[in-house]
Amino acid sequence: SSTNYSLQEYANDVVWNIMDVCDSEGVSHPTIVSESGRAIVAHHSVLVLEAFSSIEKTAPKLKVEAGEKDHKLVGDILDVKQRLKRGNRLESLHDIQQIKEEAQQTFDLGLLDLESKAKIDTVYWQAAHQIVNMHRGLRYVPDEVKQLETTLGDQYICNFSVFQSLLDHWALGQLFPIMPIHRLTTPPDRHGTIVDITCDSDGRVCKFIDLQDVKETLPLHRIQPGEIYYLGVFMVGAYQDIMGDLHNLFGRVTEVHVFLDPDEESGWYIEEVIEGSTIGEVLAMTQWDKVELMRLLKSQVDAAIKTDRLKPNDAMRLLDDYERLLQEYTYLSLNGVKAAPQPGNWLPLS
């Protein structure tokens, strides 16, 4: 579904076959006209993602100790972690995997308490992180360690919907170029995947373009407290916005039309901003009219006032807030987070 061939290969497979058929039938070669929609229009659009939080599986600074009431498996996995060294790294990996699996089975049977389960999971990921680090720089790395490194990747939570803005990634496995668009002077220090804010487990991006193949994590920076981390998804100009789905009622994203202009000091200017879908507009698509919703709420509020369950001033405030919310964006409003990184962290993409 993603382009994995060269222009020469395209010519060899398509043009050559037409030539071969024409030669065998003794007819002249035609002028070939093709319409490669994705190749023509994909470049014109870039999706900017706001990563506002991340989920890390490793917590190396969190000290775990076995208490008197903890399950025996807590002490077992702590013992393996304490004995971990380069000489027994693979054996230790197998041991912690076995303990983690046994802990899950015991937990499912109701024989392992939640606190002990949490301690075992924490120690498992700490030890796994150490084992992966022990293999860095080695000429040969076992496949199970490579897979472990992938599972250790962080989850970067981004303010978007895969089903609305990257539908072809979910439906067809389309690969898009994705990279940070700031902090480019700082080497990435994490690896992770991208997840959206829908409730669907398929709302994620976990396949990325590699030099030769497909990789399952992306080099990223740790998100700084109080800041949004920006990622660019490139070549999304073909069909993504048109075919987007209203899964979880997340609507169209805000569009910014940018024009290049050498006469401008910055070399570009913003020609137009098209606001994304509001909550009221998306609800209207599901046959819930904004006016009717306000009428229904007002009738409930009036009934609450008559029975002294709601004060009149609180009722008016509730109605105002409800009406205001219907006019807001369907995605998260990250007002408490800095809206942009420091200018010095940005680099031109050209």
What does this protein structure show overall?
The chain has about 350 residues and is of the alpha+beta class. It has 4 domains: about 5-35; about 45-55 and about 155-245, Beta Barrel (Lyase, Ornithine Decarboxylase, Chain A, domain 1), CATH 2.40.37; about 70-150, Methane Monooxygenase Hydroxylase, Chain G, domain 1; about 280-325. Helix content is about 40%, strand content about 15%. The protein has 12 helices and 11 strands. The protein has helices at about 5-25, 35-40, 70-80, 90-110, 115-135, 145-150, 160-165, 165-170, 240-245, 280-285, 290-305, 310-325, and strands at about 45-55, 155-160, 180, 190-195, 205, 210, 215, 220, 230-235, 255-260, 270-275. The strands form 3 sheets. Strands 1, 2, 3, 4, 5, 8 and 9 form a 7-stranded mixed β-sheet that branches. A two-stranded antiparallel ribbon has the order 6-7. A hairpin with a 4-residue loop joins strand 6 and strand 7. Helix 3 (about 70-80) runs antiparallel to helix 4, helix 5 (about 115-135) crosses helix 6 (about 145-150) and helix 11 packs antiparallel against helix 12. The radius of gyration is 27 Å and the shape is flat. The two termini are about 25 Å apart.
